[in-house]
Amino acid sequence: MSTLPHCPQCNSEFTYEDKGTYICPECAHEWSSTASESTDQPRVVYDANGNALQEGDTVTVIKDLKVKGSSLVVKVGTKVKNIRLVDGDHDIDCRIDGIGQMSLKSEFVKKA
After folding, report:
1. In this structure, are 34 and 64 located in the same domain?
2. Torsion sign (Cα): 94, 58, 99, 92
3. Does residue 5 sit within a domain?
4. Does 87 map to a domain?
5. Same domain, 62 and 101
6. For residues 104 and 107, what is the distance between their CA atoms, to the nearest angstrom?
7. How far apart, in Å, do the first and last CA atoms of the chain sit?
8. Strands 21-23 and 16-18, how do they pair?
9. Which residues form the Protein YjdM C-terminal domain (predicted)?
10. Which pLDDT belongs to residue 40?
11. pLDDT tens digits for 75-92?
12. What domain range is 105 assigned to?
């Protein structure tokens, strides 16, 4: 019987350890073996001006952004409504009119 913790995301019992990181083969979630089990504090994401962003906020793009794999460009001043905050390098998920579903970096937006 394994003494490794269950996956905190999908509760799978089939986790394994690799170089100090626990990995779940079912949902591909990775977490540190030294991290505490209680991660109740929400992550705070800041815009380009240092304002804290929250789920559902409206933001404005502050720089022309090329859409990878396309000839489309998200222009300066584009308003993005109802953002969702996610973990990762691109920490904002959103839907932009005329372009569709996208992930943005918080450093290229300001709170509207």
Report:
1. no
2. negative
3. yes
4. yes
5. yes
6. 9
7. 53
8. antiparallel
9. 46-112
10. 52
11. 999 999 999 999 888 999
12. 58-111
Angle at 50 between CA 45 and CA 51, to 5 degrees: 70
The position carrying tokens 């396309």 is 70
Residue 89 is assigned to a structural domain of this protein: yes
Which among 32, 31, 52, 34 has a CA at the least distance from the CA of 43? 52
Q: Of all residues in the chain, what percent are helix, strand and coil, respectively (each to 5)?
A: 5, 35, 65
93, 56 Cβ separation under 8 angstroms: no
Residue 22's CATH number:
2.20.25.10
Give the separation between CA 15 and CA 105, rounded to whole angstroms.
31
Distance CA 72, CA 65 (A): 9
Helical (H) or strand (E) element with 41: none
- Look up residue 87 and give its amino acid: D
Q: At which residue do the structure tokens 């949902």 appear? A: 27
Confidence of residue 41 (pLDDT cuts 50, 70, 90): low
Contact (CB, 8 A) for 92 and 109: yes
Nearest to 111 by CA among 47, 43, 45, 44: 47
- What is the mean predicted confidence (pLDDT) over 58-74? 95
